[in-house]
Amino acid sequence: MTMGDFSKTFREQTVNYALTPRDAIGITSLYMQTNNYSQSQLNNELTYTRLVKRWNMPEAQANIWFIGGVGETTGNYFNGTKATVSPGVQADYETTRLYASANARIYVADGITNNVVSARTGFSFYEANYDETQPWLIVEARRMSMVSTQYEVTPMLRLIHNRFFVEAGANLHGQPRLNFMYVY
Amino acid sequence: MKKILIAILLALTLSPVFAATSMKVTVNGMVCSFCAQGIEKNLLKLDETKAVMVDLKNKVVIVEAKEGKTLNEKLIKEEITDSGYDVVSIQSIPQTVAQFKEQMKGKK
């Protein structure tokens, strides 16, 4: 699977390989910068994703995930390259018409600790079958401590079709946002 | 003799033995095509599988067997469970995937 999340202040790209139905390893590159470009940081990591728990219901699915990374970080507000670890958790709940998720991740290096927390909710305009494209309206509130103390709110149009997942929108400051996922 | 032959021919052409056999699996947790595409991918890898249909609205997966092949119920259940979903029930049906799709269209 390949994934990307792009905005002015946060750009993350990941390639993942599923070892088992519950475990995946990958490589992630994450770049964060403040709005005025004064501060920036680049993390390159090996990542591990684990499906901790799943509930499969007749009309819904809920999940708890663990995501962890180990790698190195560089930035313009500290010297040199530092080793970094980044544990995180995600919980999500969805039906064919409703979606909600919450995500928290901490990035720790010597003398530097940053976190990214987000919550999403949304609905699908209509129920779609397996071979149809399904449009959703998703709203995300996200806070990246390295970027700002404020929450960034971004409404997005999500389109899902089989192996393709795309989200596009703009935050309340008009800054564009693009996410995608593709499963091989 | 002729009547017997005609009767046998009619019985053979109308017999479900000559219709492709499929399995209809009721599955919990299928809520979107992006999530459920792994089910289709894994079931298509099985030697006996000719076609797979995932029906999100009715929460079922239809697996059609290749001509002359028999579907393995246990293997199908394992593949769906390994894809991350729960199998509620599994039953043989005489329709092919194409026939099942037509049947569903007719119900709309």
Q: Which architecture of chain A per CATH? A: Beta Barrel
**Averaging pLDDT over every residue of chain B, what do you get?**
85
Biggest sheet of chain B, strands in spatial order? 2-3-1-4
Q: Assign an overall shape of chain A.
A: globular
Number of domains of chain A: 1
Largest sheet of chain A: 12 strands, antiparallel, barrel
Could you name the ranges of chain A where pLDDT drops below 50 across 5 or more consecutive residues? none
Quaternary structure state of the chains depicted:
heterodimer
Number of domains of chain B: 1
SSE order of chain B in H/E notation? Answer: HEHEEHEH
The Cα radius of gyration of chain B reads 16 Å
Number of strands of chain B: 4
Largest interface: A-B, 29 and 25 residues
Structural class of chain A: mainly beta
Q: List unreliable stretches of 5+ residues of chain B.
A: 14-20
- The overall pLDDT of chain A, averaged over residues, is 95
CATH fold type of chain B:
Alpha-Beta Plaits
CATH fold field value of chain A: Porin
Strand elements of chain A, count: 12
Task: Specify the CATH class of chain A.
Answer: Mainly Beta
Described by strand count, sense and barrel closure, the largest sheet of chain B is: 4 strands, antiparallel
